[in-house]
Amino acid sequence: METEDLKNQFQELQAQQQKKLLERRRKKEQANKNENQSREKSAGKFGVNDDLNLKLSEPPSKGFSYLSEELVEHLNDQIRAMKDENGRLYKLLSERDFEIRQLKKKAEDYKTSLPQDSVTNETAATKIIELSKKVRELTSEKESEKTKCRQLQRKIQELQSQPLPSEAPSTMGSMISLRSQVSDSQSENPSAADMKALQDRLKQAEAKVTDFRNQCLSLRQELKVANKVLSQEIGENVNMQSLLNETSNWRGRAQQIIALQQKVDELKVQLESQTDGMDSTMGPNEKGKNRQEKRYREELKRLDRERKEAQELISEVFDSNNAVIVSKIQSSLFVIFAFMSHLFGAKQAGGLRRKDLPKESEHEEAADSIEKDELLTKLEIQLDEINALKAALQRTIKAKDEDMKVYSSTLDQTKQVFLQALRQMKDKQLSDQGL
């Protein structure tokens, strides 16, 4: 840095010197011009031209005759500039040397002023600070390890309280021994290595316990699934022990379903064969009648299905409306109870106020009466809303009942019509067969 500063200063000095030289040249050129102009002016005053430069007042020119004065002056100027630069550089060097000497003196004075035991005291102080930092770090680590041990003890207690499978008695014993070891080690202030070993053992035991817990959960889930499958296969209210004690002739639900499906298929085949035989023996009129019977039966089934769907839809709508209205009634009842309790509290507060302040102002009485009136009006509004909701609920229930009655009556009528038609067709068939 100092060398760079010196270089910068030297460059600044060179620039200043060049500027000065340029100014001197310019001044000399200006002076020469002025002299030439004055000579030209004074040339024709007395009729004598002084072009030969025969002036006695000027001193004789010094130096060599083969060098011009301008060159000599220029060289002299350069010499002067170099001398100035050298002088400035010497001055800067002397200043720097002086600063170096001063710094050396200060360093020597500082060394001499310090006592001999100061270095050892400083090193001792730094060592004490480092050791205190280490002690703090170790104490913090010890506290964290203690907290970890406490947490692990709590986890061990929780795991001990939970039921474990019969396959893991050794892990339980190891956990108990680890717990006793941890408690003994905490009471005896163990070292860091013992604490780490105990922590590793605790982590291993905890990992084993978590594995066993996961196995227990998976087995429980599998048992639940198996119970569901068995209940679907056997039935819900069936004793397992009785099934185990029975003989092996028992058939499961799936087998029974397959057998029933086979029976249904056989019956369908028999029915089709019988209907084909009947169709072959019957005439064209009887075939048409059988088709009409089938159509009527299908229509009846469709009507029953529609009735069931309509009943389910109406019941769902009714349940949803009923739930909404009941929730509204409950909320309004809660509001009424709150208003009543508020009124009761206001009355009690008013009575206490009258007891405490027998000379109450008319303004306060008017305010209390206004509050009571507002509460009463709110209660009346809530009661009106409740009554309206009840009436609406009753109306909806009545309308639904009427709709159901109308629908059931229409269904009954259609059934009767279909049954009458079927009877008439059967009577016709019997009469035709008798003929």
From TrEMBL:
This entry carries the following GO cellular component terms, namely:
centriolar satellite
The annotated regions of Basic and acidic residues compositional bias extend over 29-43
Tell me the GO BP annotations in alphabetical order: cytoplasmic microtubule organization; non-motile cilium assembly
Look up the coiled coil feature and give its residue ranges: 121-162, 195-222, 257-320, 372-403
Q: Which UniProt keywords apply?
A: Coiled coil
From the UniProt entry, list the residue stretches annotated as the region Disordered: 1-60
Q: PANTHER family under this entry?
A: COILED-COIL DOMAIN-CONTAINING PROTEIN 13 (PTHR31935)
What name has this protein been given in UniProt?
Coiled-coil domain-containing protein 13
Q: Which organism is it from?
A: Plakobranchus ocellatus
